[in-house]
Amino acid sequence: MTEVSVAKEDKAATGDLVVLDSVNKHFGALHVLQDIDLTIHRGEVVVVIGPSGSGKSTLCRTINRLETIDAGSITIDGKPLPAEGKELARLRADVGMVFQSFNLFAHKTVLENVTLGQVKVRKVDAKKAEEKARALLDRVGVGAQADKYPAQLSGGQQQRVAIARALAMDPKVMLFDEPTSALDPEMINEVLEVMKQLAEDGMTMIVVTHEMGFARSAANRVVFMADGRIVEEAAPDQFFSNPRSDRAKDFLSKIL
Ligand code: ADP
Ligand code: MG
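ok -> structure tokens follow
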């Protein structure tokens, strides 16, 4: 467990890894992110919850610059987000993203999905990239699927490949946007287990999810969003047992 034991050293380090300062974003007349201040510490697991349409996905997408922002700033490990080019490609590799829809390259094998970025963006040689890909695929429990195409895998297996693909880039932080929402119920746990293991290994994670069991057991902090704002932030125990805002109380009463 050398190359694949992610970010263990990060846990020991201190400091702010992702910092959003007064971030604002509009889609036309819709003020989708309103004065978002959010700091994610190294090794921290932050679960973002809130009603549909509250801006959770947009928030994730701004952090790896799939969306631009209108005002405010975002820094990753002390550096502002690059606008374009090679620097942006590297930033996106530093910020691993796992989406609701698995987003694997359909015409590449599982193994190729996990080696491509390493070779192209990280300039790892092909043999090393393959070794690392196989180790990561084993780690997420899909080592036997390496030579198959994504469509030949179950949703849960595809999502675990997507996690392995992101990890292969040695990201500083992993973003998960409802990673289990598109899965059949029996596959949800196999993905959550991989995520829990990652959290225990010290990975810095931002996780948008409706899986409150995961939030309770793996999160250091819960961030509750509504209408483009962060309404409440608290430790999971406190948030679930004693939410302060009416919006959070109302939301929890509907989902718990
Ligand atoms: P959530 O992930 O919390 O459900 P989103 O960030 O996806 O919320 O969306 C927040 C709001 O922004 C919603 O009203 C949505 O319709 C709108 N929205 C999201 N993406 C776009 C876009 N590309 N163009 C216009 N409106 C968008
Ligand atoms: Mg969303």
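Residues 185-200 form the longest helix (16 residues).
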